[in-house]
Amino acid sequence: MKQRGKMFNQLYLIIEENKLKKRFKGNVVTAVLEVLNKETDVQRLELIYQTLWRFNDAIKFWDELIGYTSGDEEWEEYEKDLYSRYTDILLNNLQKLYLRTGRFDFMQEYSKAYWKQVQESMQLWKKLPEGKSVVKNEVSFQKIFEDFFNETIKTFPDFLVKRLQEFHNLYRASRYQVFDNYKYIMPDPAYCHDNRWNDDGVAYLYLSYDNENKECQGIKQAKKTCFEELRGKEGEQLSVCKFKAIHKRVKILDLSYDGIDYEEQLQELGTSEENYKDRILQTVQENSKLYNRMKAYAQNGNKEAFNKELDRLQKQAGLDREIHDKVQLQLSKILIGNICDSIFYAVDKEDDPNLEAYIPFRAFSRYLISQGFGGVAYRSTRMALIGLQGKCITLFNPEDAIYIDGEMEVYEYHKDGCNLITRYGNKP
């Protein structure tokens, strides 16, 4: 069916693509257009044009109905909500279009293009703009944060958003001789400097955790993680204490994932789409009336009726929701894994005297606070340096967790093991 009575011309598609590109600036649209621009099948190109035309027309309608002016605070909120909601719709519509026309690799190609865009954006994380002004740099990072939040966190929150109560075996260490003065294990703003997530003079609570409570070199792995994050020196005495959550419902952004096989995830996307095709065909073949009806549509060239029937079958089988959830989960895994590989690397003052590598992390923590998060979980870069796994969690409010009386210990640190020296009991 031709829109507005026009005979299809690829120029019409280019116009709609430009409208889309002008209206939405994020990585999702850029990646979508990269995939669409590789298409050569004329029939599919016309269907893509129709899909984009309807989408752009709907967006124009809502823009005019809302009546906000670009640059206003109301417009910014509307824009954020619109982008995450409607680009999701666009992806699903294009996915169905490709499935209907015999191609089952749209999401696979899209995921590759999307990660390419993310990689280009993430270069900013390692190569800061000229100047060291946090405020100036924060403007540059804002786009990365918003895109990450809208297209990953909001789209698939179950994968990334946890509560503090889900993190167990929390520990914090100090190289000072805390002894049984438990309050000194808590962070003091006067001594909070040169840290990854907080600005100097701002107290965040840095902890390790291990939900599996593993052993490592004769001690708890979470304790070992603390000592490595402190950059323990041979023979040095270090204090460590177990903590517990106080405000258990605090939202935590979980970036602690590792071991993600990106090629496997991409392959699974393609396999999933083939499985969806087989399930639809099986449904058709098992129903003789449906089979004959679909066959008649195809033979008579009634594409509109054929596609309506196919849409009905997908919805009836729950494939629409299943495809969406499957794709979003795998894309989230790919994205988070790559982001973590890009940004979580060990930083030393010897190599980075001004700790410029921490600027984006500090900006990111402020952004997360503005979005209602109370902390972030991530892999230990110091444990990774010695070939071990460890996980950390940083709480933006130190009062969200507290030390446990009777759990203070002092160890003598050694590279290949740590010896317990003293354990302090409950305070009187």
Report on this structure.
Mean pLDDT is 80; it is low at 1-5 and 128-134. This protein has a domain at 163-250 and 374-424. The chain is of the alpha+beta class. The longest helix has 28 residues, at 73-100. The protein has helices spanning 10-23, 27-36, 42-66, 73-100, 106-126, 134-153, 157-160, 221-229, 262-285, 288-299, 303-316, 319-343, 359-370, 381-385; strands at 161-163, 170-174, 205-209, 215-216, 219-220, 237-245, 251-255, 375-379, 391-395, 401-414, 417-424. A 5-stranded mixed β-sheet has the order 1-7-8-9-3. A 4-stranded antiparallel β-sheet has the order 2-6-10-11, with helices on one face.
Short description:
The chain contains 14 helices and eleven strands. It is α+β, with helices and mostly antiparallel strands and 428 residues long. The strands form three sheets. It has a five-stranded mixed beta sheet with strand order 1-7-8-9-3. Strands 2-6-10-11 form a four-stranded antiparallel beta sheet, with helices on one face.
